[in-house]
Write a structure and sequence with these properties.
The complex is a heterodimer. By secondary structure, chain A is α/β, with parallel strands linked by helices. Helix content of chain A is 18%, strand content 36%. Chain A is globular, with a radius of gyration of 21 Å. Chain B has one domain. The longest helix of chain B has 17 residues.
Chain lengths: 436, 481
């Protein structure tokens, strides 16, 4: 207890000052707001309902410095991470800092704005929306991002514009002498009837400890359409705590897919807010973890208006001593009639030392709705394994194949071919890890 | 659509039919809670020293605890210092037959339609009727005694079977378990005790009717059922209460112990006063119910129909300790007006190849809030275990809410958990289909609701099933009958 009392706020785990401020006015205001909250909000413990099952000791037993003080090491060629579909629509951030050299934006249509936030600080959309969509509650990580981010991604798609090429936001994390923190930021504003695909990637190049706290804000106007893939391949020693949030106007469509492969501690709190009638959204997830990884997803599907469709398929495979946590909330406000919301959480627990906690949660205040959820924790069926064995596969191969098939459904939602292929390779790497 | 809602609203508006009080004089007892009061209570009940110790220890535990707030309900906290912790009908006669019972009390039971007299004998049900806090009548003792079954009040059991009470009381629900259980352990008034010896099938269904009848008398019932190896018992519990303005607290504790191959079935109908239109008055029903499947192949089954109380916090649970043991939970919770129900179950799998089933149906109407809160936990050693849960909610009207909070966890690779939940309204297509077949709208809705809860009601013993249907009709269908 005494330890909690002393190391009370998020700042207890940060070495050095976080007082430095952005030169950009719009960012600076948010920095100040975040710092105020951070000083007055205690770091979560198991007593917080939202953190009941999550072991945060990876953060609380370490101290993180800013990137400048971490003695970051040089890194080699990262072109293998480039997507062929997005060769000219790529933004690269190294340890949270924009890298213009590695970025390439030639393929972006002239009326579309894609770039780094500090450069576009005077853009109306930045001034109007940056920091307005994210939600604090009693969270410390969103305020931490607010307090410390100096730059980030800005994407603005004007009315009736279709961006054909996927926009690739590549967050690279390098090896360093000291554990450091990084707070990537992304603001997306999609005007009426625009359409775009965002691939947000987090890649750890080495096997070091760092704290990655990204915040993404999506504002979708009437009829806007976004496909948002989030691929987390952080270092297996790292902590990744992300806060993606989207707010949807009438007829907007937002489909997000989060793939969790890396990080020792992963926590993701996606939240989609239906802010007008007739929207359609997806909050899918795929988690493949082993070793001592912890992957925790706390999603909120917040229906505030009538007529909405929402779907969530959250699939998890747990091996070794890994621990998966899921809490999916579906809120339906009082007058939000005719909501059709479906949530499914399927967990495959394939080791005796693994652990799964799941809590699908419905909170419904309108009567004319159809909301359902399903949650399962199970293993591969003996019959299925036997079937494959009877076709000549070894038992191990049969099991690998079945886990692969389990994960496939989520991977196939990716609209970008190279991403799908890359993920399939990752799935195979995960399932076949014991092969000689 | 609005018409059908209106029709339902009018049905829901039905007044509480059992709101009346009975004039029985009550023994004087000081109000409030402290060590002296507990000593006084214990001495009035003639309790041995160890029982007093148990109470005092629980009281000190309770003093240190904080009243919980994690549930999905808000209510005015009971004023524990201003409550009467002991109430008993003034004269406690030793009765041999029904005729000796205070006619007023008998009348009360009759108004409630409890067939305590001849009908019960024909029905083959022994009744341990609890009027307020002290048992006044126990019948069929002889027949039960023949079979070796002990069925008496807890107070009697403390005197007559101290070894059993010492061994089992607090073994499933320890005094420190939670705030309300601690309070109960300190001041429990009376309750039922039931012991089924080895390889005995209890010759009749056992039932207890509780009735809260004294202004400001928190009822702290305590039930303890022990089923020895190879035995079998079905226990029925039903409640109604008169209409009062003051909130009344009911913090009962029920403990079930099933040894090897034993089978306990525990059924409840709860229809306490739920408060008026504004939710004023009404009972607080904060009950701790838990059973342990101690031995191999044992089974505990909870069935409940919850329709009353202003606030209900109730989670009948099963600890599946013995290998191959089975836990079941069947529940219908109906809330109307401004009722708040936060109810569900816990299935804790510890033994190998344990199985549990949860079927929960919630119906919320009026301005009520109905929550399902459940926990299914499969331990590391509970290999080969299975759980299947369904919790469906139905909403009637636009001012109510339905919530689902299932906690699920598994820690081994050979167990499986399946959980599904849905929230919906009475389907327009379903109503249309039935109306098209010549059934009135009200009948159609009634039929659909009956179908919705059928899965659970069929688990009730026959005696209760009839009552259950009647209760649902009263609660939701009114004139539809």
């Amino acid at each position: 207890m005494s330890e909690v009392a002393v190391r009370d706020t998020m700042l207890s785990y940060i070495s050095g000052s976080i007082e430095s401020e952005s030169q950009t006015v719009a960012i600076r205001a948010i920095n100040e707001r975040g710092r105020d909250v951070l000083h007055n909000t205690s770091f979560p413990t198991r007593k917080h309902e939202e953190w009941r099952f999550t072991d945060l000791s990876l953060i609380s037993k370490n101290t993180f410095t800013s990137v400048e003080e971490a003695d970051v090491k040089d890194f080699g060629d990262i072109s293998s991470y480039y997507l062929p579909e997005a060769l000219e629509s790529r933004l690269v951030f190294v340890n949270g800092q924009f890298n213009a050299e590695l970025s390439s934006l030639e393929g972006i249509p002239g009326n579309v704005t894609v770039g780094n936030l500090s450069e576009y600080g005077d853009h109306n959309a930045v001034k109007e929306y940056l920091g307005t969509i994210t939600n604090y509650d009693d969270d410390v990580f969103a305020p931490f991002n607010d307090a410390t981010f100096m730059d980030g991604t800005f994407i603005y798609v004007p009315e009736e514009t279709v961006v054909e090429a996927p926009i690739h936001v590549l967050n690279i994390f390098t090896d360093a002498e000291k554990a450091f923190y990084a707070t990537p930021r992304l603001l997306f504003v999609g005007e009426m009837f625009s359409k775009s695909t965002i691939i947000e990637e987090h890649i750890g190049l080495s096997n070091n400890l760092y704290l990655n706290v990204p915040v993404t804000e999506f504002k979708l106007f009437t009829g806007a359409h976004v496909h948002h893939a989030r691929i987390q391949r952080d270092s297996k020693q790292a902590a990744h705590i992300s806060r993606p949030i989207a707010i949807l106007d009438k007829n907007a469509e937002y489909h997000s897919y989060t793939i969790c492969l890396g990080a020792k501690l992963f926590r993701n709190d996606p939240r989609v807010i239906q802010n007008a009638e007739e929207v359609d959204f997806t909050v899918d997830g795929l988690v493949l973890i082993d070793g001592e990884q912890i992957a925790d997803t706390h999603s909120i599907m917040d229906h505030r208006f009538a007529h909405g469709n929402s779907h969530q398929l959250h699939k998890v495979v747990v091996n070794d001593k890994a621990h998966s946590i899921f809490n999916g909330k579906i809120f339906v406000a009082k007058d939000a009639q005719k909501i059709d919301s479906f949530q499914e959480n399927r967990n495959l627990l394939i080791s005796d030392d693994g652990k799964v906690n799941t809590k699908p949660q419905l909170e419904i205040f309108a009567d004319d709705v159809r909301c359902s959820h399903g949650a399962t924790i199970g293993q591969l069926q003996d019959e299925e394994v036997f079937y494959l064995q009877s076709r000549g596969l070894t038992e191990q191969k049969s099991r690998e194949l079945l886990v692969y098939a389990f994960a496939l459904e989520s991977v196939e939602s990716m609209e970008v071919e190279s991403v799908e292929k890359m993920l399939l390779d990752e799935v195979i790497k995960y399932t076949n890890r014991d092969d000689k | 659509m609005s018409e059908e809602v209106k029709a339902l609203e009018s049905m829901i508006g039905e007044e509480y039919k059992y709101g009346f009080t009975t004039d029985v004089e009550y023994e004087d007892f000081p109000i409030g809670i402290n060590e002296d009061i507990i000593r006084e209570l214990s001495s009035r009940k003639n309790e041995p020293e160890w029982m007093l110790e148990f109470r005092l220890k629980s009281y000190h535990a309770w003093k240190e605890m904080e009243e919980p707030t994690w549930f999905n309900a808000t209510y005015k906290k009971p004023d524990y210092e201003n409550m009467l912790y002991y109430s008993a009908p003034k004269k406690k006669p030793q009765l041999d037959s029904m005729d000796d019972v205070d006619p007023n009390i008998r009348e009360t039971y009759e108004k409630l339609g409890i067939p305590l007299e001849e009908q019960k004998m024909l029905a083959g049900v022994a009744v341990d009727a609890v009027f307020d806090s002290v048992s006044v009548f126990t019948s069929f003792k002889e027949k039960l005694a023949e079979a070796g079954v002990i069925f008496c009040s807890i107070s009697e059991a403390v005197q007559d079977y101290p070894e059993l009470i010492k061994k089992y009381m607090g073994s499933v629900v320890p005094a420190r378990d939670n705030y309300f259980a601690a309070l109960n352990s300190a001041v429990f008034s009376d309750g039922s005790f039931c012991y089924i010896p080895k390889n005995t099938k209890c010759p009749m269904e056992l039932s207890t009717y509780f009735r809260i009848n004294n202004m400001n008398s928190g009822q702290f019932e305590r039930t303890l059922i022990i089923a020895e190896e190879g035995s079998q018992v079905s226990y029925l519990e039903g409640c109604t209460a008169p209409m009062y303005d003051e909130n009344q607290l009911h913090a009962a504790v029920v403990e079930l112990i099933a040894e090897k191959d034993a089978d306990i079935k525990y059924s409840t109908i709860q229809n306490w006063y739920s408060g008026d239109e504004e939710g004023k008055g009404g009972i607080y029903n904060f009950v701790t119910k838990r059973g342990i499947c101690k031995g191999e192949n044992s089974k505990i089954s909870w069935t409940q129909l919850e329709t009353g109380s202003a606030v209900t916090l109730k989670y009948p649970s099963v600890i599946l300790k013995g290998d191959n043991s089975i836990g079941e939970f069947y529940s219908v919770a109906v809330t109307t007006k401004k009722q708040q129900a936060d109810t569900g179950t816990k299935m804790i799998h510890l033994g190998k190849n344990t199985r549990s089933t949860i079927i929960s149906k919630g119906i919320s109407a009026g301005r009520s809030q109905n929550s399902y809160r459940g926990e299914v936990k499969i331990g590391k050693k509970a290999t080969g275990s299975k759980n299947y849960s369904v919790c469906d909610s139905m909403l009637i009207g636009q001012e109510c809410g339905a919530h689902t909070f299932p906690y699920i966890s598994s820690e081994n690779a050979s167990s499986s958990v399946e959980h599904e939940a849905t929230t919906s309204r009475v389907g327009e297509e379903q109503i249309f289909y039935l109306m098209q077949r010549g059934i009135s709208e009200q009948d159609a809705i009634s039929m659909i609701i009956n179908g919705f809860v059928k899965e659970v009601l069929k688990e009730l013993p026959l005696e209760f099933a009839v009552e259950a249907n009647k209760l649902l009709d009263v609660k939701l269908e009114g004139s539809v009958g």
